[in-house]
Amino acid sequence: MIKLIECPRDAMQGIPHFIDTAIKAAYINQLLEVGFDTIDFGSFVSPKAIPQMRDTEEVLSLLDLHHSKSKLLAIVANRRGSEDACLFPEIDYLGFPLSVSETFQQRNTNKSIAEAFELVEEIQNLCEVKGKTLVTYLSMGFGNPYGDPYSPEMIAEFVEKLKELGIKIISLSDTIGVATPELITELFQVQTNSFPELEFGAHLHSTIDTISEKVAAAIKGGCNRFDGALKGFGGCPMAKNELVGNMATEVMIDTLEKSGYELGLNKRELNEAMKLTNFVFLES
User: Fold this and answer.
1) How far apart are CA 95 and CA 192, in angstroms?
2) How far is CA 123 from CA 57, 132, 136, in A?
3) Which of 125, 132, 189, 273 keeps 20 to 30 A from 19, CA to CA?
4) Residue 237: what pLDDT?
5) Taking the CB of residue 33, how many other CB atoms lie within 10 A of it?
């Protein structure tokens, strides 16, 4: 079964102007009608670090979850944010960005990789007590621009450590959009064959013309969980290419359906969400 995770949080957090709370909530409510497995809707991080997400709690209070099968995911970066997120029964998943690049881990969370692993263990223990599930993102999972060490073997070492901590969902993240289809297939094949009990996701960044081949490569490697954002909004500023954004969800859907996958989405509601996208990100 293919799981699609729609990521308005990732799409919104880099927008320079603040998107009104009511507009955020209306957009996410529309996404909740589509039938995505999960909505990555907000983050419990310092407003100084991510000012666009400073209203996550208020947005959550405005969401209509009664008729949606979608689960909610919130990103956290420290113990306090994790504790705050766990106060809300509506939230199913906490997501933590763990980097295989020492430089990026310091830039992203102001911690070393060793310190980040200690924090992952704390958050995982908290999730077990509070009935949440931790999703760990391995950022710079396909290479980094800093000259830090990288290899597919390193990824397997990180996965082994996370498995020992009880983590069950790991998303391999191509933070800067450098992954080739060959590397995508190889990396997922190694992980899915070595750790069949774990769930592996793909959080890839891409130009529009390479999305389909990257989805196909991940499927070939055994991945069945995909993060995306409608029309490809969002991405990493370190990509140094304004065309490299999140995987456009509508392109992924088209690719998967042409490959014979039944995704169970409400296309009418999806079309309504597509209509809202430009207004939310470009005109609001």
Assistant:
1) 20
2) 19, 10, 10
3) 132
4) 46
5) 17
> What pTM does this model have?
0.95
In terms of Cβ atoms closer than 10 Å to its own Cβ (0-12, 13-18, 19+), residue 40 is: buried
What angle is formed at CA 16 by the lines to CA 11 and CA 19, rounded to 5 degrees? 65
What single-letter DSSP state applies at residue 248?
B
Which structural domain, as residue segments, surrounds residue 76? 3-283
The b-or-e profile of 89-109 (16+ CB within 10 A means b, else e) is eebbbbbbbbbbbbebbeebb
Total domain count, the chain:
1
Give the distance, in angstroms, between the CA of residue 90 and the centroid of all CA atoms in the same chain.
18
Contacts of 212 (CB under 8 A, 6+ apart): 251, 254, 255
User: How many whole angstroms separate alpha carbon 148 and alpha carbon 117?
Assistant: 18
Asked if 168 and 199 touch (Cβ cutoff 8 Å), the reply is: yes
CATH number at residue 19: 3.20.20.70
Task: Supply φ then ψ for residue 19, to 5 degrees.
Answer: -85, 125
Q: Are 251 and 213 in contact (CB under 8 A)?
A: no
Q: Distance (Å, rounded) from C-alpha 73 to C-alpha 26?
A: 17
Quickly list H helices, 48-139: 56-61, 79-85, 102-109, 113-130
Closest CA to 150 of 141, 160, 138, 163: 141
Residues in contact with 130: Cβ distance below 8 Å, sequence separation at least 6, in sequence order: 86
Mean pLDDT of 87-92: 98
pLDDT bucket at 16, cuts 50 / 70 / 90:
confident
Which parts of the chain fold into alpha helices (H)? Answer: 8-12, 21-32, 56-61, 79-85, 102-109, 113-130, 152-164, 181-194, 211-220, 249-258, 267-278
Per the CB < 8 A criterion, the answer to whether 82 and 136 are in contact is no
